[in-house]
Amino acid sequence: MADLNKIVEELSTLTVLEAAELSKLLEEKWGVSAAAPVAVAAPAAGGAAAAPAEEQTEFNVLITDPGATAINVIKEVRAITQLGLKEAKQLVDDSKAAPKAVKEGVSKDEADKLKAQLEKAGAKVEIK
Predict the structure, then answer these.
(1) What are the residue boundaries of the Large ribosomal subunit protein bL12 C-terminal domain, all occurrences included (predicted)?
(2) What is the pTM of this model?
(3) Is residue 108 a contact partner of residue 46, using CB atoms and an 8 Å limit?
(4) Could you give the count of Cα atoms lying within 13 Å of 11 in the half-sphere of its Cβ?
């Protein structure tokens, strides 16, 4: 059996052009194509019978409108994000023009909890 660690070390020293050439040589020798799986997956993604999308596990909590009580919203943003007063105020003020993320990449439960906190303070919130 070949020393796999030695093979890995040798492959690690290849340049991009050498790696591409190696790929072509292996495709010819074994009669396979690296592009085949991509070509098979592409029609399924756009087709009507596409597989169901994976369930989203990370969510972003966005303020779409700080509402009339922006001071309360700023306090909540500070508590959630640990931002300073100036940064929290800037985030809330910027949300008047376009939705701004308060927290990104959080779980569904945490996103719902944060949304409830911000809405209680008077903000309009969206989860994406």
Answers:
(1) 59-128
(2) 0.53
(3) no
(4) 11
Would you say 74 and 122 are in contact if contact means Cβ atoms under 8 Å apart? no
Assigned token pair, 114: 């944060």
The sign of the CA dihedral 47, 52, 53, 54 is: negative
Distance CA 58, CA 100 (A): 17
Q: Give the amino acid at 79.
A: A
18: CB partners within 8 A, 6+ apart: none
SS3 (DSSP) at 14? coil
Nearest residue to 88 via CA among 55, 121, 53: 121
Among candidate residues 103, 58, 106, the one with its CA nearest the CA of residue 83: 103
Lowest mean pLDDT among 55-59, 73-77, 113-117: 55-59
SS3 state at 68: coil
